[in-house]
From TrEMBL:
It comes from Solimonas terrae. Residues 214-296 are annotated as: Disordered. It is found in: Cell inner membrane. Residues 270-283 have a biased composition (Pro residues). Its EC number is 2.4.99.28. It comes from the Bacteria. This is Biosynthetic peptidoglycan transglycosylase. Keywords: Cell inner membrane, Cell membrane, Cell shape, Cell wall biogenesis/degradation, Glycosyltransferase, Membrane, Peptidoglycan synthesis, Transferase, Transmembrane, Transmembrane helix. InterPro entries: Glyco_trans_51 (IPR001264), Lysozyme-like_dom_sf (IPR023346), PBP_transglycosylase (IPR036950), Pep_trsgly (IPR011812).
Length: 296
């Protein structure tokens, strides 16, 4: 009995090393290799999925700008976690029955690539580990390139190229600011909000994103509130364990303005104009960015 225990203890370091290698190696390889599929694609209820990898230099810069403006305005300055957003979400969740998430683009990339939908501290812990690895091993431009290619933009539609072809019938290389904003507007819940048939909230969100990109004539200080019934909100929360949606207005009058004004501390501060992307470096032999690709 003692001999078996000793052998088990001797094997433990090897098992831990093997588990670490299985975790780290895919992250290293994916810095340069496009993923053939992702965990979220495999779990998609819509089959077959539409997914076409597009190198970052062939995607309109406006797509990256729209996604950063919509999902993670501190993307270029944080190390994978937006601590201010986490604290605000924690404070909000103390006083509301509707949870609010604070996931960055890096966290969403980790989740979409390797994990499963739904909440729970266990999944969040694994997600945090992958986020740290991704931030340590990939440049920001690769993280954004990956996110643009694997994010879901509608039921079974993954990546901006597939989304652009599906909704606008042209390549992601020629996306306009408004088209990019329409795609980014549904990212919090692409299976419930439609690019082609946007409701009043999604349309207000499109206008807000365009303004955050620096192209809009109106620049609201805060993201518009979604008008949705509790049943839909709960379904969204059940899908992923968190919701980036805000509480609905207390009365119809509160929802009347096309750009409702909220507490400025309730959402990320607007970015006057996102910084222009740096020039892309030379590409490798396979056509993939060698190191940093072009920015958003």
């Amino acid at each position: 009995m003692k001999g078996k225990r000793r052998r088990g203890l001797r094997l433990l370091p090897s098992l831990l090393l093997g588990a670490l290698a299985l975790t780290v190696l895919p992250v290293i390889l994916l810095r340069w290799i496009p993923p053939p599929t992702t965990s979220y694609m495999l779990q998609s209820p819509v089959k077959p999925v539409r997914y076409h990898w597009m190198p970052r230099e062939k995607i309109s810069d406006l797509a990256g700008r729209a996604v950063v403006a919509s999902e993670d305005q501190k993307f270029y300055t944080h190390n994978g976690f937006d601590l201010d957003a986490i604290e605000k979400a924690r404070e909000h969740n103390r006083h509301s029955k509707h949870t609010r998430g604070a996931s960055t683009i890096s966290q969403q990339t980790a989740k979409n690539l390797f994990l499963w939908s739904g909440g729970g501290y266990f999944r969040k812990g694994i997600e945090a580990g992958y986020t740290i690895l991704i931030e340590a091993l990939w440049p920001k431009q690769r993280i954004l390139e990956m996110y643009l290619n694997i994010a879901e933009f509608g039921p079974g539609i993954y990546g901006v190229e597939a989304a652009s072809q599906a909704y606008f019938h042209h390549s992601a290389a020629t996306l306009t600011a408004t088209e990019a904003a329409h795609l980014a507007s549904v990212l919090p819940s692409p299976r419930h909000w439609s690019v082609t048939h946007p409701g009043s909230y999604v349309q207000r969100r499109v206008n807000w994103i365009v303004g955050q990109m620096g192209y809009g004539t109106q620049r609201p200080d805060s993201e518009p509130e979604p008008d949705m019934p509790d049943e839909l909100r709960q379904q969204i929360e059940d899908d992923d364990g968190e919701s980036s949606a805000e509480p609905a207005p207390a009365s119809p009058a509160a929802a009347a303005p096309s750009h409702p004004q909220l507490d400025p501390d309730d959402e990320p501060e607007p970015v006057p104009v996102l910084p222009p992307p740096p020039a892309p470096p030379p590409t490798g032999a396979a056509g993939e960015p060698d190191g940093d690709a072009s920015a958003s």
